[in-house]
Amino acid sequence: xxxxxxxxxxxxxxxxxxxxxxxxxxxxxxxxxxxxxxxxxxxxxxxxxxxxxxxxxxxxxxxxxxxxxxxxxxxxxxxxxxxxxxxxxxxxxxxxxxxxxxxxxxxxxxxxxxxxxxxxxxxxxxxxxxxxxxxxxxxxxxxxxxxxxxxxxxxxxxxxxxxxxxxxxxxxxxxxxxxxxxxxxxxxxxxxxxxxxxxxxxxxxxxxxxxxxxxxxxxxxxxxxxxxxxxxxxx
Length: 235
Known about the structure:
Residues 164-225 form the ANTAR domain. The longest helix is centred in the C-terminal third of the chain and has 48 residues, at 148-195. By secondary structure, the chain is α+β, with helices and mostly antiparallel strands. A hairpin with a 2-residue loop joins strand 4 and strand 5 (131-140). It contains 8 helices and 5 strands.
């Protein structure tokens, strides 16, 4: 087998292993950690990887990273609002900065990154349907470390990551909704037994407590379950 064939086989095995880990992940955070670990090990030229997440009101933060310096480099980008990961989240799908010391696109971030030991970066937007999730970022400690192959392999990782993060978020939302429904049902049962009410009447009691006290229905149910006390509708 020639070198190119061996590299192709190695990447195929790497992607297969990544998919196994993503299927086994039980949360968004474990999904992110699997992605950055695999990306740092597989993308040619990369010595570290991280994921920047887009939050409310345009805020961006680092949700997962394979090295401590990644957080510091990302922090400089967020504060300056300049750099490959910020550009991938805000403007374009892929951003390559192969020589940060001399890149005119990042006049403030470039020197800051170099001072932290990062000479090149490659960032990919993460998105699901029309929603921008964040970016997958790769870091190198030497200029021109990233090649066309780096871009191709990184793009595949970004596509996998986008789908996996969206799936993890949906699963967590469904799990949270099921937990809420279960707690409310349990609290309704307690109120029914305590006050000899029907299920509809007991649910109305919970709803009125929630409205009058300006507390979420789930919080009312949680209090009833774990204290055994049914709050008054009004103080």
